[in-house]
Automatic annotation (TrEMBL):
UniProt entry keywords in alphabetical sequence: Carbohydrate metabolism, Glycosidase, Hydrolase, Polysaccharide degradation, Secreted, Signal, Xylan degradation
Compartment list: Secreted
Principal location: secreted
Superkingdom of the source species: Eukaryota
Protein's name according to its UniProt entry: Beta-xylanase
Organism annotation: Phanerochaete sordida
The protein's enzyme class: hydrolase
Single Gene Ontology MF annotation: cellulose binding
């Protein structure tokens, strides 16, 4: 059986992958991406981000995002929307604008409701807020926090809820996969949003890991967040290594993938897992982490690595 089928047989909603528009011209890539039994869920890696969807104020552009949404729908794959509000990949009119609180509130409301509304009824879950915290647990100092304080989270979530009442609304974050200051801050935020009846349905664990360093507390973290009344998901899984890859590193990577997948499999509230693209050919890792790569379950020639079997074992 293929990975999505295995995930469904374990009671999960999906096993999925990120993809990105430039890759879609690669027909050998598409042949695997389009297999809905392998990938039951798709996340656009870039084309729903603010710089892509609202490059100028009030001017929306759907070309890239529509292409991936239509592809997924054609393949019978469910979609995660990524994302509404993030400090990165922001157009300069947002990041360098100087706005009053009232102005930025309506900018966020307009962006989130137009984006989420454009795909109303077509998206399983939205990363409404991405990466709000620093690793030390303080709020990230970006245009949103600096202008609105913590209230921007509520503003974005409420706009998304109104635009698509059926979509699951997530906060997505990294380095919350182990206990620490960042996870504690996010947990406190979840608690306070829930207490204030702000719409929040899920927490995304990005899970960009390093071979040999997958946090042993991952399953506990998933359960701890779920206990606050949210679902959870592994949203951007990859497990990188210092290149070149060796048989020993690939064997450790296989074990590491199994452990991540098992952590989600064992937690009922963990609805699914998404890898941050399935092939090393199109992974974001080498261009972001110098000297590192080979983070995906398929190699650059679309040959399955030991990590593929590691995932299957976990399911
Ligand atoms: C990455 C994309 O994969 C790259 O193509 C892009 O250049 C930078 O962003 N956390 C996230 C994702 O939430 O949006 C990021 O995606 C990876 C880290």
């Amino acid at each position: 059986a293929k990975l999505h089928q295995l995930a469904v047989s374990k009671g999960k909603l999906y096993f999925g992958t990120a993809t990105d528009n430039p890759e879609l011209t690669d027909t050998a890539y598409d042949a695997i991406l389009d297999d809905g039994t392998m990938f039951g869920q798709i996340t656009p890696g870039n084309s729903m981000k603010w710089d892509a969807t609202e490059p100028q104020q009030g001017v929306f552009s759907w070309t890239g995002a529509d292409q991936i949404v239509n592809l997924a729908k054609g393949n019978g794959q469910i979609l995660r929307g990524h994302n509404c509000v993030w400090y990165n990949q922001l157009p300069s009119w947002v990041s360098s604008g100087s706005f009053t609180a009232a102005q930025l509130t309506s900018i966020i409301q307009n962006h989130c409701s137009t984006l989420v509304g454009h795909y109303k009824g077509q998206i399983y879950s939205w990363d409404v807020v991405n990466e709000p915290f620093n690793d030390d647990g303080t709020w990230r100092s970006d245009v949103f926090y600096n202008t609105l304080g913590t209230s921007y989270v509520q503003i974005a979530l409420e706009a998304a809820r109104s635009a698509d009442p059926d979509a699951k609304l997530y906060i997505n974050e990294y380095n919350i996969e182990y206990a620490g200051a960042k996870a504690t801050s996010l947990l406190n935020l979840v608690e306070s949003l829930k207490a204030a009846s702000v719409p929040l349905d899920g927490i995304g664990f990005q899970s960009h890991f390093i071979v040999g360093e997958v946090p042993t507390g991952l399953q506990t973290q998933l359960s701890t967040f779920a206990a606050q009344g949210v679902e959870v998901a592994i949203t951007e899984l990859d497990i990188r290594m210092t290149l070149p890859s060796t048989p020993a590193l690939l064997a450790q990577q296989k074990t590491d993938y199994t452990n991540v997948i098992k952590a989600c499999a064992f937690v009922e509230a963990c609805v699914g897992m998404t890898i941050w693209d399935w092939t090393d050919k199109y992974s974001w890792v080498p261009s972001t982490f110098s000297g590192q790569g080979a983070a995906c379950p398929w190699d650059e020639n679309f040959v399955r690595k030991p990590a593929y079997d590691g995932i299957a074992i976990g399911l």
